[in-house]
Amino acid sequence: MKNYELIIERLQPSCGGKDPKEVKMLTVTTDDPMAYVKSLESAGEPQMEVKDNGDIVISLDQGMKHITYTFTEE
Question: Which of 17, 23, 9 is nearest to 61 (CA)?
Fold first, then answer.
């Protein structure tokens, strides 16, 4: 299993004075980042991209919300 720093960004329309962007940082251990995301998100079709620096970026839309998971290997 690999250890990753995980950044989760959730973007949603502004309403009720809430910040439209929520960011969480975690440390996770997984062999399959896509399976990890699918275990957390029941709606939306995740798309995966591997950046030149090795980061794995998985993003999905849930109605008016856009969620991005960025995995950086430690």
Answer: 9
Burial class (CB in 10 A: 0-12, 13-18, 19+), 29: exposed
Quote the DSSP letter at residue 36: H
What distance in Å separates the CA atoms of residue 12 and residue 34, rounded to the nearest whole number? 22
Q: Which residue has the tokens 């690999």?
A: 2
CA Rg value for the chain: 13
> pTM for this one?
0.89
Name the 3-class secondary structure at 16.
coil
Determine contact, residues 71/4, Cβ cutoff 8 Å: yes
Structural contact between residues 68 and 59, judged by C-beta atoms closer than 8 angstroms: yes
> How does the average pLDDT of the chain come out, rounded?
92
